[in-house]
Structures are given as C-alpha cells and as structure tokens.
Amino acid sequence: MFARQTLRAAQPLKSQYRRYATESSGSGSNAVLYAGLAAGASAAAYYFLSQGDNAAKVKDAAKDAEAKAKAAAGQGKAKVEGAVGKAAFTGGDQGFISLKLDSVENINHNTKKFRFELPESDQVSGLHIASALLTKYKGPEMQKAAIRPYTPTSDENEQALSISL
Predict the structure, then answer these.
(1) What's this model's pTM, rounded to 2 decimal places?
(2) What pLDDT digit, counting tens, does each position of 120-129 carry?
C-alpha cells in the first residue's frame, strides 16, 4: 500500500521529465561522403599520372640553376678575397708566426689592448669571429715558453691584429 501511494505521487514527475526529452534522429547514410572521397582520389590520381614529363623537366631546370648559383658564388668569393688581401693566419700546419708589437693601449686597471703588425703590409688577419689565437712567448730569464690562447678583437679585414688582455 505504501509503495502504491509513493509511485502514484511520482507519476507527475515522470511526465514532466519526458516532456522535455526528444527522440533520437535516424542515422544518415554515408554514401555521399564515400562518393566525394572516391572523386577526390580519382582526381588526384589523374593529376599525378598526367605530370610525369614535367617532373623530369623541373629536375633538370633545378640542376641547371644550382650549377649557375655555385659558379656565381665562386666568382664572388674570388673577387672578395682579391679585394681584401691575403690572410696572414691560415691555420693547419702553418706553425707560429713572429709578430712585432706596434702599440699598447691601457683600457682600465687590469685590461690592455695590444696591437701587432702583420708580417706583410698588405696582409689581413683572416681570423673569423670566435677564433682562438695561441701565443708563445719566452722571456730572457724563462726556461720554458708560455703558451696562452687569446681571442682577437680586431676586424678580420683589418691590416693589423688587436688582442685585449
């Protein structure tokens, strides 16, 4: 008896809940989607197969352009090297080069700028950014030479070498 009264009281709540619910719609067909994919695939295949001769022409043109660019770059590099002058420091098995101290400039209490003359007046240092220069000095009372690395502070096209210590 108690259950019947409880369920009877819940009937209006059930009808209120179902009033706002909607039925699910029927699922559509995917035939249009599959037909569109098939048409796109066939168009792509036609385009790919019709471009066979053009691909070889494009590759040949790219090779010709690359060869011309390399030739132009080589000529430009030779002109720049000729205009700048030959490099004093070439690296490799060059060994140590004796340099004459040109001037010393005091920057502050613990830094000096040493400027060296290069062996020939038309030479440039040729040291690029972030190069390291090994210096070797043996004083009159020293038994062994002191070898230290330094970073040059002069421009690579300058006709003298500057080192800040």
Answers:
(1) 0.43
(2) 877 787 777 7
Range of the domain at 129: 100-164
Q: What residues form the annotated binding site?
A: 148-150
Q: How many domains does the chain have?
A: 2
Q: Please give the structure tokens belonging to residue 103.
A: 């001037």
How far, in Å, are 67, 70, 77 from residue 59 at the CA level?
12, 17, 27
Binding residues for FAD: 148-150
Residues in the chain, overall count: 165
Beta carbons within 8 Å of 85's beta carbon, 6+ residues apart = 122, 123, 124, 157, 159
Which stretches does DSSP call E strand in the chain?
100-108, 111-117, 133-137, 146-150, 160-164
The pLDDT tens digits of the residues spanning 80-93 come to: 555 556 777 777 77
Strands 100-108 and 111-117: antiparallel
Residue 7, in any domain of the structure? no
125 in a domain, yes or no? yes
**Which amino acid, 32?**
V
